[in-house]
Amino acid sequence: MSDVGKDAIEQAWDAVVGTARRTAADGLVVGTSGNVSARVGDIVLVTPSGVPYDRLAPGDAVGVDLAGRQVLGDMVPTSELPLHLAVYRHTDAAAVVHTHAVHATAVSALVTEVPLVHYAAALLGGPVRTAAYARYGTRELADHMLTALRDRTGCLLRNHGTVTYGNTLDQAYDRTAQLEWMCRLWLTASSVPGHSPALLTPAQLRDVQDALEGYGQPG
C-alpha cells in the first residue's frame, strides 16, 4: 500500500473502532456482539471476532479483500464477515453496521415487516423488512439479508438483530439508531391495551420520501 493508502486505512480503522464503541456505549450491542466495517478501495476493514472494542488499538486493523481473503492484521475477522461482504458486493455501500439492538431484535421476532408507525422508515428506503432466520455467520443468512435489503438501506434479521449500510459510518450508524427508535416506538404504541397504532399509508410514506429529497442544507 502507498503512504496515502496507509493513511486512508488508518483513518478508516479509527472510524470503525469508534463506531463499534459507540454501538456499545449506546446499548445497541452487549459485550462483543454486533460488528462494524468500512470499505476503502478493495479492502474491507472489519472488527475482529470476540475482542472487546475498548481493547482495539490503531495497530490492530483487520482487513480482507472482497473475496474474504485476509490482507491486513493477525486477528480473526468477525464471524459475520459473509454478511458484510454480501452488502459490499451488491450495493454501493462504504460502511456497514450490524447490531443486536433490543427493540429491533424483539420486533424481528414478531413481524415480517416493521409497521409504518413513523415516517422515519423513509430514511431506510421504505418499509423495513425482516430477513428469514439462518444461523449467524452463514452464507444462508447473507442471502436472506440481501433479499430483505432490496431497495432498502437497512433490515431486521429474524431473532437476531439489525443491518444497515451507508456512504459513511456516521450514516450507517444513524440508520441503525433510527431503526431501533422506530421499533421501540411501535412496541410502545402497541402495548397500550385496547388500542392499535395508527399507521402511515404507502402514499403518505412516498410523500415523505419526495420531501426528504430537498431536506437539509444546500451544497
Structure commentary:
The structure is a single chain. The protein has 219 residues and is of the alpha+beta class. 38% of the residues lie in helices and 15% in strands. It has an 8-stranded mixed β-sheet, with helices on both faces. β1 and β2 (43-46) form a beta hairpin. The longest helix has 23 residues, at 3-25. It starts with a helix and ends in a 7-residue tail after the last helix. The mean pLDDT is 94.
Task: Give the percentage of residues in beta strands.
Answer: 15-25%
Low-confidence stretches: none
**What is the number of beta strands?**
8
Binned, the helix content reads 25-40%
The global form is: globular
Counting DSSP H or I runs of 4 or more residues, the number of helices is: 6
Write the layout of secondary structure elements.
Blueprint: H1 3-25, E1 35-40, E2 43-46, E3 63-65, E4 70-72, H2 81-90, E5 95-99, H3 102-108, E6 130-131, H4 139-148, E7 154-157, E8 161-166, H5 169-190, H6 202-212
Parallel strand pairs: 6-7
Antiparallel strand pairs: 1-2, 1-5, 2-3, 3-4, 5-8, 7-8
Helix pairs in contact: 2-4, 3-5
